[in-house]
Amino acid sequence: MHLHSTGMSWDKYPAKHAKLSDIDIEKVKRYIQKAKETGRKKIEDDEEPMQVLEKMNLITEGQPTWAAILLFSRQTNKFISQAAIHCGRFKEKNIVIDDRMIVGTVFEQIDEAMDFIRKNINVEFVMTGRPQRDQIWDYPLEALREALINAVCHRDYTIFSNIEVRIYDDKLIIRSPGFLPYGITLEELYRPHSSTLRNKGLAEVLYDTELIERWGSGIEKIQQHCVDAGLPEPIFKEYQGFQVVFRKDVYDEEYLRSLNLNERQIKAVMYVKESGQITNKDYQEVCATSKRTASRDLLDLVSSGILEQIGTTGTGTSYILKVPMGPQWGHNGAKGAKEARR
């Protein structure tokens, strides 16, 4: 809050013990080339890489700033060990089946974290009639990349903790150290808002290379990518830092319990997820309950907007999930819904 009130940004301060020789000139040259291609930064052809960084205040008092170290250094973690992304693939809650600590510049961290994610989530190849098959991932890669970019750009680097990527069977969580920057609330994220920057040096370079925008549109893009893929909108929350929770579908047991459903109803929803539909008779068998209780529970699930009733009365009546779920919905969900209605 103090830095915000003074208009200063932590990453514009000189990096302790860093020297100009710690900057990789080739990495700066690649940035300059990309910035010229995007047209977002006017850089003269005769300007030297170090001159460019000085003009951007990424070199100050003859020293690289923290932003320069995070973006262009030869060995980032030598100066700031917490600048890393810790990636894990979990089976159940505490069983780790893949684990990787990713270090390097923020550009390298983003790319390597995406490689880890692609390795540890599922992809389906769909024939479309075109020469190239469509790839349908558990989660839209564009949304995951946007969330990672936001994490490295907006995290609080003064906290001695890493960004975390946790991949479970039913969800993927990206957690960044620190809460939202001063001046913006969690509620405002869901509405059009101006971009509030914690790390101005980082943000300037990421903007120049078209990794971020300056209009506070990152959250909206993440949401839209998920909706387009037929997935629930991610959950954004401040808990042990700032978290983005991507879900394969909205109907996980944790969410259903938050709706105060009883155990029979949760079991029935899980059954519908597997089989596509449920009848009153199915409900009685699955939940070991009476026809009367099954009717009451099913009516409650319909009233809650979770199930949709197909048919009116009698043995032809069945129930399907009302909200589409899973990345396959956008490609064959309509067909699946019709088949469930038969």
Q: Care to give the gist of this entry?
A:
This protein has 342 residues and is α+β, with helices and mostly antiparallel strands.
Question: How would you describe this structure to a colleague?
Answer:
- The protein has 342 residues and is α+β, with helices and mostly antiparallel strands.
- The chain folds into two domains: 249 residues, 2-Layer Sandwich (Heat Shock Protein 90); 70 residues, Winged helix-like DNA-binding domain superfamily/Winged helix DNA-binding domain (Arc Repressor Mutant, subunit A).
- The chain is built from 14 helices and twelve strands.
- The strands form four sheets. A six-stranded mixed β-sheet has the order 4-3-7-8-10-9, covered by helices on one side. A two-stranded antiparallel ribbon has the order 1-2.
- The longest helix has 15 residues.
The percentage helix is 40-55%
Figure out the total of helices. 14
CATH architecture annotation name of the largest domain: 2-Layer Sandwich
The description of the largest β-sheet is: 6 strands, mixed
Named CATH topology of the largest domain? Heat Shock Protein 90
How many structural domains are formed by the residues?
2
**Poorly predicted segments:** 328-342
What is the CA–CA distance across the termini? 60 Å
Secondary-structure element sequence? HHHEEHEEHEEHEEHHHEEHHHHEEH
How large is the radius of gyration? 25 Å
Q: What oligomeric arrangement do these chains adopt?
A: single chain
CATH class category name of the largest domain:
Alpha Beta
Class of secondary structure makeup: alpha+beta
Instruction: Please state the average pLDDT score.
Output: 88
What form results from the Cα inertia axes? elongated
Give the spatial strand order of the biggest sheet.
4-3-7-8-10-9
